[in-house]
């Protein structure tokens, strides 16, 4: 019987990397890049012709996308990490996911697991449309690929058994 057991240790840098990955793989990221390049070009073009106040604004605008925005995202990630339960133990077994946090225990059957996704060196196991468990490369180690296939196969297996004879999900 296969099972995977991990201590979930999510760091602020993990949330930061995921957020930056999602931002720069979307239309918002493209707009950020265009804005950043435009600000640098405007600054180069008008630097000598502008006064101190405008130079300060141009300099600040040049720092906005590459420095200030990632710093803000990191500070938000740091605050997020401080409110999530650290030390969560996750056991992925044949009958589902066993979650232990402090003295609380819960079992999530495979039929309730909504999906699995790889993003930015992180595997997220979704328990509903907006929530899930993050397992990072430093937690998974060399088991990452095997773990992903294990969870994915269980999700697919239970999704197919949840269909009735008409092929409609129950």
Helix content: 40-55%
Could you give the order of the helices and strands?
Answer: EHHHEEEEEEHH
Major beta sheet, strand line-up: 1-2-3-4
Largest sheet: 4 strands, antiparallel
How large is the share of residues in beta strands? Answer: 15-25%
Low-confidence stretches: none
Q: What is the 3D shape?
A: elongated
The overall strand count is: 7
Distance between the termini: 28 Å
Strand-pairing-aware structural class: alpha+beta
- Helix tally? 5
What is Rg? 22 Å
> Taking all residues together, what is the mean pLDDT?
91
Short précis:
It contains 5 helices and 7 strands; from the N terminus they run βαααββββββαα.
Textual characterization of the structure:
This protein is an alpha+beta fold and 170 residues long. Helix content is 51%, strand content 22%. It is built from 5 helices and 7 strands, in the order E-H-H-H-E-E-E-E-E-E-H-H. The chain has helices at 12-24, 27-46, 52-83, 137-140, 144-161, and strands at residues 4-8, 88-93, 96-101, 104-108, 115-119, 122-126, 132-136. The strands form 2 sheets. The protein has a 4-stranded antiparallel beta sheet with strand order 1-2-3-4, with no helix packed on it. Strands 5-6-7 form a 3-stranded antiparallel beta sheet. Strand 6 and strand 7 (132-136) form a beta hairpin. The longest helix has 32 residues, at 52-83. The radius of gyration is 22 Å and the shape is elongated. The mean pLDDT is 91.
């Amino acid at each position: 019987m296969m099972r995977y057991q991990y201590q979930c240790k999510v760091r602020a840098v993990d949330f930061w990397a995921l957020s930056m990955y999602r931002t720069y793989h979307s239309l918002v990221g493209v707009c950020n890049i265009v804005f950043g390049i435009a600000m640098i070009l405007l600054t180069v073009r008008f630097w000598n012709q502008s006064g101190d106040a405008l130079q300060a604004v141009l300099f600040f605008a040049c720092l906005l996308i590459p420095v200030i925005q990632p710093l803000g995202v990191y500070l938000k990630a740091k605050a997020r990490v401080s409110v999530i339960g650290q030390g969560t133990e996750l056991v992925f077994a044949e009958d589902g996911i066993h979650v232990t946090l402090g003295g609380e225990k819960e079992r999530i059957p495979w039929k309730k697991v909504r999906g699995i996704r790889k993003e930015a060196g992180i595997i997220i196991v979704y328990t509903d449309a907006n929530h899930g468990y993050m397992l990072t490369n430093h937690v998974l180690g060399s088991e990452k690929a095997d773990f992903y296939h294990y969870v994915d196969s269980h999700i697919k297996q239970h999704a197919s058994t949840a269909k009735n004879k008409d092929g409609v999900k129950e």
